[in-house]
Amino acid sequence: MSEQARDAIVIGSGPAGYTAAIYLARAGYRPLVIAGAVTPGGQLVNTTEVENYPGFPEGVMGPDLMDRMREQAERFGAEVKYDDVTQVNLAGPIKTVTTDGGESYQAKTVVITTGSDYRKLEVPGEREFGGRGVSYCATCDGFFFKDKPIVVVGGGDSAMGDADFLSRFGSSVTLIHRRDGFRASKIMVDRAKANSKINFILNSVVTRINGGPQGVESLDLQDTVTGQTRSLEANGVFIAIGHTPQTTFLNGALDLDEEGYIVAEGDSTRTSLPGVFAAGDAVDKIYRQAISAAGMGCRAALDAQDYLTSQSSSDNPTD
């Protein structure tokens, strides 16, 4: 085994990556965290106040929470590099990870925590009002729109569930879908239709999100059948059109499901290759919460530690 090989590399950051790094570092493995070049810290760096993360009764800003996790990992010996992984060779006892900057690193174990990205509408105003009325997480931000008109964009189970959840807070909830039928399951559609606070606008797409210094004020809509346009008042816009797991860099190195999520073995974080583990939203397409990602990062670190311990008895471990 190469003397230059590290014990562990964590690809990605966010709650899963930094938690995995904390556990691995405290165990003495001094992991290298390749945190990403553009948005180290994951989706929370684009989130304003986080009120549902345990231990912060007054709430905490998303970027601050990620900074504190990173500092905690570094305190115990983790090394953080801000670059993107572009190529991996994960087979065999020594894994190789290559970054966009041209650096290659070797390790006995790799923990992948690259997360997923919200699918965007890609319309004017969406980026401008991100965190100021535009949200991709109903459970994170619904409370901020108490007694205000809310819009949910989407037609799947997530959109139906978000609309039902947000009806607890908003003065009204309008669900906008580009077709006249839904991808959502019948039980979710029936539940939404039975909710008197939820209205539906079908065969329509959002073409612009409008607002001012205080945030979102209205949406421009276009009918996909007639082409007619209209304006709709809204202060909260929740986009629920799906997620894209950040796994393309793997280029077939691991088993993925049909949607591109990493397949884990049973209830573990083990992937299809020995010594490679995965946690967070690159695996989890159900919960997608910071706290569940952090918990999974802990599990991945413990699985990696168990693997390292089992391999330490041999100088030349095999698959």
Number of helices: 6
Give the strand content: 25-35%
Q: Globular, elongated, flat, extended or rod-shaped: what is the shape?
A: elongated
SS-based class: alpha/beta
Cofactor: FAD
Catalytic activity: [thioredoxin]-dithiol + NADP(+) = [thioredoxin]-disulfide + NADPH + H(+)
GO cellular component, one term: cytoplasm
Keywords: Disulfide bond, FAD, Flavoprotein, NADP, Oxidoreductase, Redox-active center
Features:
6 helices; FAD/NAD(P)-binding domain; about 325 residues; about 25% strand; 19 strands; elongated
Structure write-up:
- GO terms for molecular function: thioredoxin-disulfide reductase (NADPH) activity.
- Residues 7-297 form the FAD/NAD(P)-binding domain.
- The chain is of the alpha/beta class and 319 residues long.
- The chain folds into two domains: 6-118 and 243-311, 3-Layer(bba) Sandwich (FAD/NAD(P)-binding domain), CATH 3.50.50.60; 134-239, FAD/NAD(P)-binding domain, CATH 3.50.50.60.
- Helices cover 23% and strands 27% of the residues.
- Strands 1, 2, 5, 6, 7, 8 and 19 form a seven-stranded mixed sheet that branches.
- The two termini are 13 Å apart.
- The model has no long low-confidence stretch (mean pLDDT 93).
Summarize the structure.
This protein is of the alpha/beta class.
Helices and strands in order, then pairings?
Blueprint: E1 6-11, H1 14-26, E2 32-34, E3 49-50, E4 60-61, H2 62-75, E5 79-81, E6 85-89, E7 95-99, E8 104-112, E9 116-118, E10 134-135, H3 138-141, E11 149-153, H4 157-166, E12 172-176, H5 186-194, E13 198-201, E14 204-212, E15 215-223, E16 229-233, E17 236-239, E18 243-245, E19 276-278, H6 290-311
Helix pairs in contact: 1-2, 1-6, 4-5
